[in-house]
Amino acid sequence: MTSASSPGSANRLIIALDFGTTYSGIAYAFSNDKVGLPVSIDNWPGEEGRRPVKIPTLAYYDSSDSSKFSWGAKAGASASRVAAVKLLLDPSQPRPKYLPDLDAEVPAVWSDAAKNATLQAAELAGLNPVHLIKEPEAAALWTTKQLDIALLPDDAFVVCDAGGGTVDLISYQVEETLPHIRVKELVPGTGGLAGSLGLNQRFDDAVRRLVGKEQWRVLQSSKGYNYAAKYFDRDVKRNFMNREDDEYFVSFPMAKLRNDPDRGLESNCWAMAREDTKVIFDPIIQEVLSLIEGQVEGAKAKLGGKSPKYIFLVGGFGASLYLLQRVVEKYPDIQVLQPPEAWAAIAKGAALYKMSNRAIVTSSSATRHYGVSTWGLYDESRDRGQPTLPFKDDTIRTEIMQWYINIGDDLLRHRQIKFPFCRKLDEGYTSDGLRFTDHLYECENDPAPVHPLKVGTFRINCTITSDFSGAPRDKFVKKTNKCGQVYYELSYDLVLTLDGALMKLSLEMDGQSYGSVEAKYHI
Q: Quick check: pTM over 0.85?
């Protein structure tokens, strides 16, 4: 997400926020910076001396004193702190089996409702103007700028943004390299709940098994366990490489744990052997590898069997040395790279999004079908068994789907897609009767259904309210049916404009903007 100050200024300040499930970061840049290197914020309250480029996405509210509020590293280890709030934005995806204690759910690929909720939250916080950008796209912008590689036209690459809560992936193909790199999405974005938060959960489970349920009840809320969990998060997760001599000494200060030498637990310290760590990592790593495989195979299908040239690993989990090792082992013929500052790649790439000397993403690949329901002429071979209605124009019609965007379609940036509507109004219509409600539908079934469904991935994307009370009346076409009844036809287009990660809606009649439109997104 980016925000730019003083829209009319020649030198604008661009602020980019990477709002993550477990960690969040900010980067900034100036629009006329010829070098074009965004700067990360690394001076955070509670992290003095460490200078991390991200801060924990945590908040703490004291229930007994509303004036006591803390956030980030200062939120501490209180059991009442608020964590993983990003997961609440779109609770529509199933949780993975290896996250049994996760109370909320997060989308693998964000829905339009979640994007809209994020935008509204930013505006309520006083950020304006605000632009949303897909995380893998931001990563691609930063990676293509930072890595010392020669991208050539038709080269393809997979971006794997492995973060705390989710892993998101998109494949791109280079269209041209001069004067700037221009790329297009090659395969629709995919993702899953395979982020490093799963490693933390599995570390909890491993310690619980190590000390037993009785000791765990006391240990889990202690300062000693908080110290151990931080060590695992900051050192083990990032540095584990599955080497023969990999061993970590996890300390639980003042925990008074019973010694268990056979399992490596002595004097409140667990000698976590290579196999102990591998058991924690492998299920999560395997899920990431499966997601990467889906993108690689999808890219090969688009490239006539040819593999993508690169795989870029970004994000906090993307900086994992063990993840890099496993991806390299699986794809020896593809160059696997971790860009410098992989943890800050999203925020820095988002800042680049509003700069002129950046790589340009020219199109996206649709991840869903989008369309509207319409009353089409009844066709016996197509519509047998479907409900029908007689219409004012003396026809018999049934409800069918009209899909205007299909999975895999190349969606050019700023392209307008028009959804035509036709209303039939009684002769005595009033201005109050010129407010119409429609639904924009989405579906992930392939192929897309001919008729509306009540099951599966077919659902309402948003409810659209169109107001034509101020439209010129000469746009209303007077007609008479065979019974002599007078009625009016109102034809208009719902116009969908693709702008970064968002869809913008407007209304047109005969190519000119009329009326107003409001959209209420459904979760």
A: no
Residues 6 and 30: their CA atoms lie apart, in Å, by 12
- CA 252 vs. chain centroid, Å, equals 36
Distance CA 384, CA 353 (A): 50
**H helices of 168-232, where?**
197-219, 223-231
- Alpha helix segments (H runs only) across 400-485: none
Identify the helix (H) or strand (E) that includes residue 115: helix 112-124
Q: Which two tokens stand for residue 378?
A: 């009844």
CA–CA dist 342, 347 (Å, integer): 10
Whether residue 405 contacts residue 370, with contact meaning beta carbons closer than 8 Å, is answered with: yes
Residue 494 one-letter amino acid: L
Reference 180, options 156, 159, 151; nearest CA is: 151
Kindly report, residue by residue over 106-165, the tens digit of the pLDDT.
333 678 888 888 888 888 888 878 888 888 888 888 888 887 677 899 999 999 999 988
Q: Which residues of 500-515 are buried (b: 16+ CB within 10 A; e: fewer)?
A: bbbbebebbbeeeebb
pLDDT average, residue stretch 456-477: 91
* Helix %, strand %, coil % of the chain (to 5): 25, 35, 40
SS3 435: strand
Residues in the chain: 523
Closest CA to 26 of 36, 13, 38: 38
What DSSP assignment string belongs to 290-334? HHHHHHHHHHHHHTTTPPPSEEEEESTGGG-HHHHHHHHHH-TTS
Distance of CA 297 to the CA centre of its chain: 21
Spatial neighbors of 470 by CB under 8 A, at least 6 apart, are 514, 515
Q: What is the rounded distance in angstroms from the CA atom of residue 473 to the CA atom of residue 482?
A: 24
299-316 tens-digit pLDDT: 999 999 999 999 999 998
Residue from 364, 345, 309 nearest 135 by CA: 345
Pair 354, 132: CB distance under 8 Å: no
Cα-Cα-Cα-Cα dihedral sign, residues 254, 255, 260, 261: negative
Residue partners of 101: CB distance under 8 A and separation at least 6: 201, 204
C-alpha distance from residue 411 to each of 109, 184, 295, 447 (Å):
17, 9, 18, 19
Report the Cα 283 to chain-centroid distance in Å: 22
- Secondary structure (DSSP) of 21-57: SSEEEEEEEETT-SS---EE----TT-TTT--S-EE-
Ordered by start, the domain boundaries in the chain are 2-195+284-364, 197-283, 366-521
CB crowding 201-229: b at 16 or more within 10 Å, else e: bbbbebbeebbeeebbeebeebebbbbbb
Bond prior to 188 in cis (omega within 30° of 0): no
Helix axes 197-219, 274-302, angle to 10 degrees: 150
The mean per-residue pLDDT over the stretch 332-343 comes to 91
Average pLDDT over residues 326-335: 97
Structure tokens at 374: 């319409």
